[in-house]
Here is the input.
Amino acid sequence: AQTVTQSQPEMSVQEAETVTLSCTYDTSESDYYLFWYKQPPSRQMILVIRQEAYKQQNATENRFSVNFQKAAKSFSLKISDSQLGDAAMYFCAYRRGNFGNEKLTFGTGTRLTIIP
Amino acid sequence: DADVTQTPRNRITKTGKRIMLECSQTKGHDRMYWYRQDPGLGLRLIYYSFDVKDINKGEISDGYSVSRQAQAKFSLSLESAIPNQTALYFCATSDDRGHGYTFGSGTRLTVV
Here is the structure.
């Protein structure tokens, strides 16, 4: 079974600085998707960024980017110019790529605190 | 209106009571899911449904049942609630093209 590991239960960063959240996963598949979700105190789950395993280029969304290392099975999230609104729980998630396997497997989350 | 609506938003119930959590979506997707979130454990899959006639157990289905009343509706039932079912419950829907999930706003359930 696939597993997703987030080894940092909590992280903190100074406002305007850069922070990287770690995620590793275990799979024998070659076709899959990886995601980062943000859960602010409102508890809504918000998709931050998505990466397809067959794409070598790292995904970016404004201040959010990933470092996808397929051979190392690593998928870290970098947040640049941190803002107070980035304070949240962040979950890494994995799903297999083939049709009929859209279930997501989540990591245990990293709580990010932004220090003003 | 939200793409995925969950009701109720919060609920306190007593041990042994039957409770139903409801979910409806307007995305037009076939895939729907129920997850529970516990501190330190992330989100774990309870049940999922790929269409109205297809329902599957997830990794933690014991003590739960589901009903897919229509493409847009997927409800979760606790037949006899127990305190360790206290958690935040999420419903979600997805397409089949890897675009990720759309989540509801969650139901916080407390069993006393």
The interface with chain A takes residues 31, 33, 35, 40-45, 48, 50, 58, 88, 90, 92, 94-96, 98-101, 103, 105-106, 108 of chain B (CB under 8 Å). The first strand of chain B starts at residue 4 and ends at 7. The two ends of chain B are 32 Å apart (CA to CA). Chain B is about 0% helix and 60% strand.
